[in-house]
């Protein structure tokens, strides 16, 4: 009977799993954050707040600090966080390895917006991601910001989803890496943005700075071929 119900649900696009660390992303994330005693989640590239809502669904009750550079998404992020006293949204900005003012390319689907030029391979796989405009935005180093929740945190989990700009974000966080115990990072298998670091370079950087891979979560795939183009790598400090 259970298998028949699962098959019926799959027929309408729904897949059901048990809520445990082996089968549920939410349960697994909650266990990992609790195991590493994380007290602050820093969400870089927060878009409309979807990741913040997901983190709360895991049972995490500590501080969330969300950064988003794109104006439309930023307004939605403010709305998503306004009733959560422990969810903090600084001024609209991007994060990188140096202070600057740059232009962000705004994608039609919002989530693919990037400081980098999108390559044809990305657009072929996701036509709705085509850039539709540009916005000027301030760029800052994470370790140069005076944000109380980050300054007071003891054990930070850093999530970075910046569409090809992940390595500059990591380099701009070097000054606080001593208290970053975990990193979740969007990693590209193929070049999707001009000048981005691919997964091998990101993996090498994280290993050199003391992190070990704990898991991989599927990300952006080509809907026509099924080829995975991006995945999320999950890392924790080797001595944490």
UniProtKB/TrEMBL annotation:
Signal peptide: none annotated. SUPFAM superfamilies: S-adenosyl-L-methionine-dependent methyltransferases (SSF53335). Keywords: Methyltransferase, Transferase. InterPro entries: FkbM_Methyltransferase, FkbM_mtfrase, SAM-dependent_MTases_sf. It comes from the Bacteria. GO terms for molecular function: methyltransferase activity. Pfam families: Methyltransf_21. The keyword Repeat does not apply. One of its GO terms (biological process) is methylation. Residues 43-211 form the Methyltransferase FkbM domain. NCBIfam families: fkbM_fam. This is FkbM family methyltransferase. It comes from Caenimonas terrae.
């Amino acid at each position: 009977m259970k298998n028949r119900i699962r098959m019926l649900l799959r027929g309408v696009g729904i897949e059901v799993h048990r809520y445990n660390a082996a089968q549920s992303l939410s349960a697994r994330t909650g266990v990992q954050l609790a195991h590493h005693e994380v007290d602050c989640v820093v969400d870089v590239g927060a878009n409309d707040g979807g990741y913040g809502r997901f983190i709360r669904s895991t049972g995490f009750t500590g501080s969330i600090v969300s950064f988003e550079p794109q104006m439309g998404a930023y307004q939605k992020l403010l709305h998503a966080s306004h009733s959560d006293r422990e969810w903090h949204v600084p001024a609209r900005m991007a994060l990188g390895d140096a202070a600057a003012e740059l232009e962000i390319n705004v994608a039609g689907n919002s989530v693919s917006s990037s400081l980098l030029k999108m390559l044809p391979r990305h657009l072929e796989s996701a036509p709705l991601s085509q850039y539709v405009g540009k916005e000027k935005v301030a760029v800052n180093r994470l370790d140069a910001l005076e944000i109380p929740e980050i300054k007071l945190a003891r054990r930070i989990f850093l999530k970075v989803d910046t569409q090809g700009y992940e390595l500059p974000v990591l380099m701009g966080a070097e000054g606080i890496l001593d208290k970053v115990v975990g990193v979740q990072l969007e990693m590209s298998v193929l070049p999707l943005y001009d000048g981005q670091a691919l997964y091998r370079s990101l993996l090498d950087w994280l290993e050199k700075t003391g992190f070990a891979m704990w898991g991989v979560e599927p990300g952006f795939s080509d809907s026509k071929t099924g080829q995975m183009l991006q995945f999320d790598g999950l890392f924790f400090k080797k001595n944490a």
